[in-house]
Amino acid sequence: MVSKLRRIKTISLICGGAGGGILSILDGIKEIQIRMETLERENIELKSAVSNLKDTMDSGMVLKSYYCRSDEIFDFNNPMHKPGMYRLLGSNYFINAPTSETELNYANVLVIRYPTTDTVAMLAFPYSTGNIYYRAGTNTSFHRNAWKKITTQSI
User: Fold this and answer.
1) Could you give the CA distance from residue 36 to residue 39 in angstroms, rounded to a whole number?
2) Which of helix, strand or coil describes residue 67?
3) In sequence order, what E strands does 2-155 have?
4) What are the CA-CA distances from residue 16 to residues 5, 33, 115, 138 (Å)?
5) pTM of the prediction?
6) CA-CA distance, 65 to 102, in Å (whole number)?
7) Which of 28-50 are b and which e, b meaning 16 or more Cβ less than 10 Å from the residue's Cβ?
8) Measured at the alpha carbon of residue 72, what is the angle toward residues 67 and 78, in degrees to the nearest 5?
9) Tens of pLDDT, residues 12-26
């Protein structure tokens, strides 16, 4: 009985007393419906924005970072890697390296390409030396083009 009285008092206070109670409740319900419609519209807009962001991220127009998993082999002769930054594992996880495999253990590789073109550039950055390895070409010529070594000088 006490909880019923508390609820009635609460409703009465929210509605502005006993006089305009029903109209106030209806106005409150209408306001809640308007707020719910607004939230639903904003939710739809948010879902659309998230979908557009996902489409952009999947388009290849955004440079992503990849960690080569232990079940993947990174092939330095493959020009079809997605554009992005790759973190290699040990020498058991990559093939056709431009230099000794031990030098490229745990190296970073940058693959640069525009998604709808056939040109690609690849740079390999060993963590243990100051050397940088570079190769560029088209999808059909990439594997035939020689790697170039860029040697840096300590300052």
Assistant:
1) 5
2) strand
3) 64-67, 74-75, 84-87, 94-95, 108-112, 119-125, 132-138, 148-150
4) 16, 20, 63, 76
5) 0.59
6) 22
7) eeeeeeeeeeeeeeeeeeeeeee
8) 95
9) 545 455 555 566 777
